[in-house]
């Protein structure tokens, strides 16, 4: 029922899977994190397949911290959740940080939605990606912002929108 942080250090790996455990019965949700801050090279986390660099499977994980310090390694990538036909909202509320489907993330410069899923990227005034974010194949059109204070990016497949600073959104 307590918060757990699983540190994956440089050269480290897991032979089986990481299980964050069940939520507490008292109504407070623990935050179970996989932290790659000392991993030493770029990492990829795939929420749809529940796999990650050096971690063949995970369950019950609520947050991921990419490798590196500050905003993280520019090659860190987070792949989104969802099944074909789902609508997935990404809330970007910091530099290379945010939340998707209740999972917090930080230090991920790249975000990629699943193919066949409608991804929407919502940004607060301080939310940003230093790399690329991509809705994947499928129609990526948001319906409404999840909270007040968010802006959204929308488009149709095959189009890209410049976000300034050389970054772009691919649809």
Largest sheet: 8 strands, mixed
Between the first and last Cα atoms, what is the distance in angstroms?
A: 40 Å
Query: What is the helix tally?
Result: 0
Oligomer: single chain
Low-confidence stretches: 154-171
| Mean pLDDT rating | 81
Q: How much beta, percentage-wise?
A: 35-45%
Secondary-structure element series: EEEEEEEEEEEEEEEEE
Tally of DSSP β-strands? 17
Largest beta sheet: what is the strand line-up?
1-3-7-11-10-9-13-15
> What is the gyration radius calculated from CA atoms?
16 Å
Estimated structural class: mainly beta
Descriptive account of the structure:
The protein is mostly beta strands. It has strands at residues 4-7, 18-19, 32-35, 44-46, 51-52, 58-59, 63-65, 77-79, 87-94, 97-100, 103-106, 110-112, 118-123, 133-134, 151-153, 160-164, 167-170. It has an eight-stranded mixed β-sheet with strand order 1-3-7-11-10-9-13-15, with no helix packed on it. Strands 5-4-8-12-14-17-16 form a seven-stranded mixed β-sheet, with no helix packed on it. The relative contact order is 0.14. Mean pLDDT is 81; it is low at 154-171.
């Amino acid at each position: 029922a307590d918060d757990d942080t699983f540190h994956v250090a440089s050269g480290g790996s897991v032979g089986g899977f990481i299980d964050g455990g069940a939520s507490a019965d008292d109504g407070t949700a623990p935050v179970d994190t996989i932290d790659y801050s000392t991993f030493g090279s770029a990492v990829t986390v795939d929420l749809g397949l529940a796999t990650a660099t050096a971690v063949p499977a995970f369950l019950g994980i609520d947050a991921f911290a990419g490798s590196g310090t500050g905003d993280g390694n520019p090659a860190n990538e987070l792949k989104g959740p969802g099944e074909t036909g789902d609508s997935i909202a990404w809330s970007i509320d910091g530099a290379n940080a945010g939340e998707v489907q209740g999972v917090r993330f930080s230090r991920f410069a790249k975000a990629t939605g699943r193919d066949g899923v409608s991804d929407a990227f919502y940004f607060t005034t301080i939310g940003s990606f230093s790399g690329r974010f991509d809705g994947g194949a499928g129609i990526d059109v948001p319906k409404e912002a999840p909270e007040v204070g968010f802006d959204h990016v929308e488009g149709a497949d095959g189009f890209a929108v410049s976000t300034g600073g050389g970054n772009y959104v691919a649809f």
